[in-house]
Design brief:
Blueprint lengths: L16 H48 L2 H40 L7 H41 L7 H37 L1
The protein binds protoporphyrin IX containing FE (HEM).
């Protein structure tokens, strides 16, 4: 026999204004969380992709080039590459911090558990170390390298004299080593974030 209106369980019906309002706010909170997460993951893809490309393709190829073409390639690629890495790393950290602040303030339904947040906090500390490597070693070293290469281009011999050549090689070595360490720490942070968000 079909049930009358009185028999219908009221738990499935949202009838009060307060319930409708709180459901609307919850959905909006979810939307903000998802937008921040997309921006965060988007900037991470740019940062990690750029850094991995440098370590696995650019640095080994540069090593095989002749001093003259190495200088030319480095001068044309390195400044814009470092701007890209600097911008995407700052965007990743800012969106990550915004996500963290949002979770702490609003506690959206998609937020990680308390133990998950611990992994994210450890990931944030590792990110800080990577940022120190990027802005304290990588970017200043690449600036020095670009200046040195510009100076050596003005000299008569392509690739510069022996002293300049040795200095360029040591700066390139420092660049390669710090980039490899940065990529390793980024991969570690990536794992910490995924685990933190899943548990
Ligand atoms: C200041 C630094 C950072 C902070 C404060 C931060 C914070 C956060 C927060 C709060 C979330 C949301 C967790 C969730 O979905 O429930 C998140 C997600 C994520 N973060 Fe970070 N993050 C930072 C840096 C990074 C870095 C450097 C990486 C990569 C190397 C990274 C990779 C990710 C990924 C992949 C997710 C999505 C995880 C998932 O939903 O499965 N984050 N981050």
């Amino acid at each position: 026999m079909p049930s009358s209106d009185e028999d219908t369980p009221t738990s499935h019906i949202i009838n009060s204004e307060a319930e409708k309002n709180s459901l609307g706010l919850e959905r909006m909170a979810d939307a903000v969380f998802v937008v921040l997460l997309i921006l965060h993951v988007g900037s991470i893809v740019a940062w990690m992709g750029g850094a991995t490309l440098f370590v696995s393709v650019l640095a080994p190829s540069i090593r095989k080039m002749s001093p003259a073409s190495r200088g030319e390639f480095t001068l044309s690629v390195l400044p814009s590459y470092m701007r890209f890495i600097g911008g995407s790393s700052i965007a990743a950290a800012v969106t990550g911090l915004a996500l963290y602040a949002y979770i702490i303030q609003m506690g959206p339904p998609l937020a990680p558990s308390n133990s998950g947040l611990t992994y994210i906090q450890i990931g944030a500390v590792v990110t800080l170390i990577v940022l120190l490597i990027a802005f304290g070693i990588l970017i200043p070293t690449s600036r020095k390298l670009v200046e040195l290469l510009k100076m050596s281009q003005k000299q008569a011999t392509p690739g510069g004299d022996a002293a300049t050549f040795a200095q360029v090689a040591s700066l390139q070595k420092r660049l390669g080593m710090s980039a490899r360490l940065g990529v390793f720490l980024l991969a570690l942070t990536f794992i910490l974030m995924i685990v933190g968000a899943s548990i």
